[in-house]
Amino acid sequence: QVQVVESGGGLVQAGGSLRLSCEASGSTFTITAIGWYRQAPGKQRELVGSISSGGSTNYADSVKGRFTISRDNAKNTVYLQMNSLKPEDTAVYFCKADTRWYSSAFWGQGTQVTVSS
């Protein structure tokens, strides 16, 4: 089984930057991809971006050019670097690990990001 924990959320002014971390533990060798999602009050959870086990990344159009996903394999950690933040980026951000362990996915607890105008 895999566990993921997000950290790094906080309050930032519009135009500022924040870096979120997603640390994985457990059977990390089974992970096929890590996705970053966010959910604002009253809205559905949406995919922000993802990174595959091969290192390829994908981003939602709304964050492309502003957000960057990277990883540190030695630390079993994936990062979400968020630049040029906008108030509409305000949400709880979640990390999700897709695994080949019975095709299971594992979610983190979420971390709050608030961008003030």
Question: What does this molecule look like?
Answer:
By secondary structure, the protein is an all-beta fold. 0% of the residues lie in helices and 58% in strands. The chain has strands at residues 2-7, 10-13, 18-26, 31-39, 46-52, 57-59, 67-72, 77-82, 91-99, 105-107, 111-116. Strands 2, 4, 5, 6, 9, 10 and 11 form a seven-stranded mixed sheet that branches. Strands 1-3-8-7 form a four-stranded antiparallel sheet, with no helix packed on it. The chain is globular and about 45 Å long. The termini are far apart.
Extract low-pLDDT stretches.
Answer: none
User: How far do the termini sit from each other?
Assistant: 40 Å
Q: Can you tell me the overall shape?
A: globular
Please write the string of helix (H) and strand (E) elements.
EEEEEEEEEEE
Spell out the key features of this protein:
117 residues, globular, 7-stranded mixed β-sheet, 4-stranded antiparallel β-sheet, mainly beta, single chain
